[in-house]
Specification:
The chain has 192 residues and is an alpha/beta fold. It has helices at residues 39-45, 53-64, 100-109, 121-129, 181-186; strands at residues 6-13, 17-19, 46-52, 77-81, 93-96, 114-119, 135-141, 149-150, 161-168, 174-180. Helices cover 23% and strands 30% of the residues.
């Protein structure tokens, strides 16, 4: 049985931010190219989505505004990570109360497709620091926003990445795919 991968797939500004300081993502509203930046194929490769609280709340706001694709997919397992005890607004979302490491190991042991960490920076940092991210897929948007929420919450760390591929879209968006080296080393496949 193939071990499920945990993949971060996000859009980031050219200067490395997921959103403005207030959580705004207005800079993502840009003319679209033909196609979907590979999102449909990625969506078929996953069956589980992990949300940090702020990303979850943003998804709820988008849902209320009627933005297409903002609803929680009941065909996928949706998990919410929060230090606060909150009740998910949708029955399609489960609150995680165990540690990131324990949750990730349990999830990887279950049969299924790959797992998507949709954000945010704190959740990504927690999984990264626990050695539980296999891959980053970053859509780099050719826009600089100057300040905001970084791709990964700041902590003292050094994590090496191996470039798996890059793809340029006609509007200047780049999709960068990186394997996290220590994730492979942790499982005994590679020594760093």
């Amino acid at each position: 049985m193939r071990r499920r991968k945990i993949i971060v797939l996000v859009a980031a500004s050219a200067d490395g931010f997921l959103a403005r300081k207030d959580g705004g993502v207005d800079w993502l509203d840009r003319p679209h190219v033909a196609g979907d930046y590979g999102m449909a194929a990625f969506d078929r490769s996953i069956d589980t989505i992990l949300f940090g609280r702020k990303t979850y709340e943003l998804a709820l706001r988008f849902q209320k505004q009627g933005i297409p694709g903002a609803a929680f997919d009941p065909k996928k397992r949706n998990y919410l990570f929060s230090r606060r005890r909150i009740r998910p607004a949708s029955p399609a979302v489960a609150l995680v109360t165990e540690s990131v490491a324990r949750f990730a190991e349990r999830l990887r042991a279950e049969p299924g497709k790959d797992v998507w960490i949709i954000g945010g920076a704190g959740l990504i940092a927690s999984f990264l620091d626990a050695g539980q991210i296999d891959e980053f897929r970053i859509h780099v948007i050719p826009t600089m926003i100057g300040e905001g929420i970084p791709l990964v919450a700041p902590r003292r760390r050094t994590v090496e990445l191996d470039l798996l591929s890059s793809r340029r879209f006609s509007d200047g968006v780049m999709l960068l795919r990186y394997a996290v080296r220590y994730a492979a080393a942790k499982r005994g496949r590679r020594r760093i």
